[in-house]
From TrEMBL:
Residues 21-182, 304-386 form the FAD-binding domain. GO terms for molecular function: FAD binding; monooxygenase activity. InterPro entries: FAD-bd (IPR002938), FAD-dep_Monooxygenase_BioMet (IPR050493), FAD/NAD-bd_sf (IPR036188). This is FAD-binding domain-containing protein. Keywords: FAD, Flavoprotein, Monooxygenase, Oxidoreductase. It comes from Entomortierella chlamydospora. Belongs to the paxM FAD-dependent monooxygenase family. The keyword NAD does not apply. Gene3D superfamilies: FAD/NAD(P)-binding domain.
Length: 444
């Protein structure tokens, strides 16, 4: 029932302006938001449904569309220490015939102002996790339902506990329990758009992994000072595959299988969670696929089982991102295909803009919270929609990490000194803050 608290009342916010934020989901979006909230002294707690978070074993690439925020937070030097710079992306057929190279020459890099930073996803997760106090994260807290009234929001967990706050953030991924609970409330009231009643589309399967540290004598590419990226496009096969070197003499690899309509219908009833359990059949199919350094099987054999994951490539842009005191960020409200490599970036961009809107919050009254959450969606939706369409186009042309990102959109925290404007590109302006002492800088 939406307007009933079955346990203790919500906490009283100091002076009625600083909200208590409940973040559901301890993934990249939730952790990044927590770090940002900490900088404006906004109290928060994170609730994670699993016993521990096991991030994907695949590769990630960050560039100018999120690195200024890392620079603001003082995290960019840490990121550089665990990443490799990347400028070239080599494309081959499955028979090892070279198709072409995507790359950043010196002129392009100078205009962008930042290099591509390539690393395995667990590396970024561990970096962000190290900046969030352990006592702020509560594990084994699967959310069963949410509720709200004018005084605050509430979550009820599967272990019988309830928690209260002023703002509830669903950062709990594509299968978000916060979104499901919120949408049920709205659907019962007849307030949910029809498009939001439909599930995520599933058309492909994606398997990724990260090897253990490899012997440089057997794998010379891992000793290169910059990342080496290869994308293979199969001929006469539904598969494409890739490999990328990262730090610590490791290689991240990925395989995409295009599903036919019948196969897609069969697969949609299976779990779409990341995990190693469902990978064995696919591994048998792809072991002999060639890569410039040997075969995909060589990398698979060098990959611990727990570092291998298989999941649907899903996409969906939801229309409803917020209601009352509840807001969704990241995959909970927009699931992008991994072909553009921008899913995690957009989730962290969400965190930046949401933190800005919370910073500008007039009070913790429900109307003011709702206004701040509307502002968040108005700022983010156009950019996410553009990236959503770009990811669909990239998927049609190439499966893998794309080097083409929306690098002129670089959201920053309005409550921190702005990172210097790097490169020669004309950067998109950001909504200025009227509360920040850095307001005069917010002209980009």
């Amino acid at each position: 029932m939406e307007n009933i608290y079955p346990s203790q009342p919500p906490p009283i916010s100091p002076n009625g302006k600083i909200p208590h934020v409940m973040i559901v989901g301890a993934g990249l979006a939730g952790l990044f938001l927590a770090i940002l909230l900490d900088r404006i002294s906004v109290p928060y707690e994170i609730y994670e449904r699993t016993e521990e978070v096991r991030p994907l074993g695949g590769v990630m690439c960050l560039n100018a569309n999120i690195l200024p925020a890392f620079e603001q937070l003082g995290l960019i030097d840490e990121l550089r220490k665990v990443s490799l710079q990347s400028r070239t992306f080599n494309i081959y057929t499955g028979n090892m015939e070279k198709i072409g190279i995507f790359g950043n020459d010196d002129k392009l890099s100078e205009s962008i102002g930042y290099d591509n930073h390539l690393f395995s996803r667990p590396v970024l997760y561990d970096l962000l996790l190290s900046h969030v106090p352990a006592e702020r994260i509560h594990f084994k807290k699967k959310v069963l339902s949410i509720a709200r009234n004018k005084e605050g929001a509430m979550i009820r967990c599967s272990d019988g506990t309830t928690y209260h706050g002023d703002i509830l953030v669903g950062a709990d991924g594509a299968n978000s329990s916060v979104r499901q609970s919120l949408y049920k409330l709205l659907q019962d009231k007849g307030q949910l758009p029809d498009s939001d009643t439909k599930g995520l589309s599933k058309c492909n399967i994606f398997m990724v992994g990260t090897t253990k540290p490899l012997d440089p004598e057997k794998h010379p590419c891992v000793s290169e000072p910059t990342a080496i990226l290869y994308q293979m496009i199969g001929e006469g096969t539904p598969y494409t595959w890739s490999s990328m070197t990262v730090r610590n003499h490791q290689i991240c690899w990925g395989v995409v299988k295009q599903l036919g309509l019948a196969e897609s219908q069969n697969e949609k009833f299976r779990s779409s969670e990341w995990g190693p359990e469902t990978s064995e059949a696919m591994i048998k199919d792809v072991r002999d696929f060639r890569i410039p350094t040997g075969t995909l099987g060589d990398l698979i054999d060098a990959t611990p089982k727990e570092n291998t994951s298989r999941v649907f490539m899903e996409d969906k842009l939801f229309e409803t991102w917020h209601h009352g005191r509840t807001v969704l960020i990241g995959d909970a409200c927009h699931k992008l295909l991994p072909s553009s490599g921008q899913g995690a970036v957009n989730a962290m961009q969400d965190a930046v803009i949401l933190a800005n809107c919370i910073y500008e919050l007039k009070s913790t009254a429900e109307d003011d919270v709702a206004e701040a959450l509307r502002d968040f969606k108005e700022q983010r939706y156009p950019h996410v929609k553009r990236q959503y369409e770009a990811s669909k186009m990239s998927a049609k042309l190439l499966y893998g990490q794309s080097m083409s990102a929306d690098l002129v959109y670089r959201p920053q925290a309005s409550f921190l000194p702005l990172a210097p404007t790097r490169g020669t590109l004309n950067i998109l302006p950001q909504k200025p803050s009227k509360s920040s002492k850095y307001y005069a800088q917010n002209t980009f």
